[in-house]
Amino acid sequence: MPSYQDIATRLRDAYAGGAIPPLRDALEPTDADGAYAVQTINTRFWEGEGRRIVGRKAGLTAKAVQTQLGVDQPDFGVLFEDMRVSDGGTLDPAKTLQPKAEAEIAFVLGADLPEPDTTVDQVAAAVASVHAAIEIVDSRIADWKITFADTVADNGSSAFFVLAENGLPLAGLDLEGAAMEMDVGGKTASTGAGAAALGNPLNAAAWLAQTLARRGEPLKAGDILLAGALGPMVALTPGDHVQARIAGIGECSFTYGPGA
After folding, report:
1. What's the burial of 121, exposed, middle or buried (CB within 10 Å: 0-12/13-18/19+)?
2. Section 150-163 average pLDDT
3. Distances (CA, A) of 9 to 20, 67, 75, 80, 153
């Protein structure tokens, strides 16, 4: 049986070497502890390489995405500064393997959330700003044939993210009812609403805060939280312009095009 270190190395090498077979020989499909152990090994490796953590992402919070991927519970991954694509910017396709885009609501925290029993109200009080966001997910597992353990070990199938330059204060916003439209190549490719993220993006953020506090890695002021997809993810083709609009919250965009 391969060690967690072996699995972590296999995943890291896939970023440059190409997608690899599912990790069935190494992780049982529902082995959350083992999968997070692999994720942590790579997180520490990348931190040692100088990458800076700027937040976390909650994944698999939308039933539509869970259905697409054949999983039935949320997960999380780490956001590094070098994963950020500027609002209106360009993502070089050479940096991805089999990317898909999904529109999300994101939070920037203005206070720490250290408690393992963090409530939705405590999360709301800690939110400094609310933003429209796009997550560009990717998988180092060939053909996206992932189990829960595969995606967790693979840093939540993360790749890049776009955060709307302008955020809003939380007060008065209807997160649950906020309608989302995501255009790809000028055509509506995905629709949804805030309720897709565990009923309300604040629920997803609270789950994330609780989970990370229990692991001894609590969310901190300044962290960016991606609260999960609001609708189905969409595969990207080089040249695609992607724009997400979330009613009452804002919009953001990027172009999936060649590097400058």
Report:
1. exposed
2. 97
3. 12, 29, 21, 18, 11
